[in-house]
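Supplementary Data S3. Sequence and structure tokens for construct A.
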Amino acid sequence: MVKVSERVASISPSMTLAISAKANELKAAGEKVINFGVGEPDFNTPAHIVQAAKDALDKGYTKYVAAAGLPALKKAIAKKLKADNNLDYDPSQIIVSNGAKHSIFNALFATINPGDEVLIPKPYWLTYPEVVKSCGGVPVFVMAKARHGYKLTAGQIESMITPRTKMLIFNSPCNPTGAVYTEKEIREIAEVCERHDLLVLSDEIYEKLIYGGETHFSIACVSEKMKENTIVINGVSKAYAMTGWRLGYLACAPEIAKAIASFQSHSTSNVNTMTQYASLAALEGDVAPMREMVKAFGARREKMLEKLDSMKALGLDYVKPDGAFYVMLLCDELYGKTYKGRKICGSMDVADLLLSEKKVAATPGVCFGDDDAVRLSYALSMDEMCEGLDRIADFARECE
């Protein structure tokens, strides 16, 4: 019997697979399933970006390029980081990879040694701890509680630091909570990181998706030392509705960038060449489609929160999200109750019953380390969203 490596064996499978498979089965059987589990914009990639990829094909841009990224694209990313984030990076400090997830893997693979501890705010994007484990690191979770807006304090982070702590993973705007940290909160966290000389992986993939007057502030902006110790992660998937194009990037200190570039040259080589030309068009082209998409998300968010407000009497609650396109729906008041004779014991039960009984797909919070909630995405049409929320209200109303 062939045995897989310990590093792969340590990775947990996604707990969402069973629900996703069941949702697909129901759809195939002709059921109208309303999917709140979607983690991608439901908008088409803007036409000028698609056209740039077609032009690249017509021009014969189908060969290898530099493993770390097309020089013109890296220059455009450097320009973007300066204009949007007030961060100065030389193009050599930027690595273009196959999606932000790939960038995160590269960053951790290049910096984490076996036994290094990595602090991860909880609730977390479910990939973070698995990547840490695959690189030999030890995930250490720090609970960001709902009553605190799903945000960690500097004191919480400092209390978890040990001599083995190497890195903090920081995600604002946050998946799954939609939390957006203020500049003041980020500066306080940065002070702790600087004092303990921690690396920070700052996942900023949702930076363009912010509502209600909040603004994005990169932790790398705090000081030169913080910039030196921060690996900024971003990409084109969320802001430009390009999830399937698979292009992310990171910016970091020269020695880390050099190591990642060397590693990527042997692991994947360059990102799809046509995607890089399309991404160049995204960064340099018309931003009107992106603004319209963000405006639509903002309207859906307002409607979702309005409807959720009317459901509080049913034992459901939420924390107002200021970014991304998710809401954590607190459903723990339903635990201990029954639905058609089945006892509800946690978020997996809620998600399973919603799908089987109401044909609503939601992601159980236990996947993100918070069993008190299910995650709802508003990356679906307004009509579908409202119908789905009505089904959820009916479910809560029918619990005994």
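Construct B, processed identically:
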Amino acid sequence: MEQTTLFDETIDRILDKERALRASNSSVFVVDEELNLISVNNKEVYDSEGKRMRPGDFLNCINAANGDGGCGMHEYCKQCKLRNAVKKALDINKVVVDECTLLLKDNTKLSIEHTVTPFNLAGNRYATVFAVDISARKQKQIMDRVFFHDVLNLMGALNGFVQLLLEEPDEELLREVKKLSEQVISNISYQKDVMNAENRSLTLLPTDITVRSFMDDASISLCSTAQNFNCKISITNDCGEEVPIRTDIRLLHRIILNMVKNAVEASHENGIVTVNTYLENDKSSVVFAVHNEGVIPPEYRSRIFRFGQSSKGIGRGLGTYSMKLFGESYLNGRVWFTTSEEDGTTFYFALPLIRRRL
């Protein structure tokens, strides 16, 4: 019997054990010990240069795209749960089941449940990977855990103020009711924007404005956010001139506000958060930089922009995820961060000054 036929028959026997999973329209990868893809859904796959791909290359993982050499070569690849599950299955010669969420090149997410089954053939080690797309289920979990939880908390507080007003009208309570109702509307609108952005149905409303005017308008909400966390905020504009931009002000504001919220949540009481704007050296973009003195733990850095994952706990991380989604996929900019014990943490958003059609 030819080795190719034996290989196919071996795969078929393994697939027979997973009929329910196979019927779910999931992807079935076969990889060797180096995690090279032998086949995907029983078909061979190669990159544009005719070389074998690895899982991250095939799935369009952003780390594979940014790594010098593709999947497995980026500094964050060593923390990839998919790669580690395959390696573990091959090492212990047992089936390994796990979940992972990948940030893709287009800044959308892909959550998969993977079942890794190792096997031997002609003295070589291989593994089949059954990858089931569970993105919808994971998003619902995050919605239940974060969005609905936050809205219900706001509505509970709002209802309490309304009850007090029914007993005794008070102007200060009315202002709190107005503030809370605006927060509810903002949260719902924000979640709607995220969902529409993921579905590629978000409509942009480009407006001409200067960086100075935008920051003057945004400073009210930025300062309020810092005060809510008992932090201080310093806002400076180092552009040195009136810099005109054409962008969707709503999305730009959400990006900067999420940066500030992320910074104050990571700061100690009375900590200082700085917001600075400046032009890149070639004056092609204006950069919005938000700094705090905290440090992102190493184990969270590789997934800081993933949906629903944060150093603040499982189910957080919507803000950092939306920074990438809005900033890069819709406003044509770049979002990144730096973090170290010496310099603290800074999130950046570079918005191109070239008048692109949004």
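The first strand starts at residue 27 and ends at 32. The chain has a mean pLDDT of 84.
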